[in-house]
Amino acid sequence: MSTTLAVEGMSCGHCEQAVEEAIEALAGVQGADADRDAEQVSVDGDISVERLIAAVEDAGYDAEA
């Protein structure tokens, strides 16, 4: 299953990496690909949108489905 979230606040490669690492640390996630220019992250895995949003927000960014 693939999910895409809108993410605000990513301004550099480090920001993309921080978002990806926060999501990839969750059980059920196979991978994440953040794109600061598109202001979104694509996630592959079987996990709830709520948990994904919480992980991104815990990393210091705003997210919504």
From TrEMBL:
Xref: CDD domains: HMA
Gene3D superfamilies cross-referenced by the UniProt entry: 3.30.70.100
Pfam families named in the record: HMA
Tree of life domain: Archaea
InterPro entries: HMA_dom, HMA_dom_sf
GO MF terms, alphabetically ordered: metal ion binding
Residue ranges of every copy of the HMA domain listed in the record: 1-64
Protein name: Heavy metal transporter
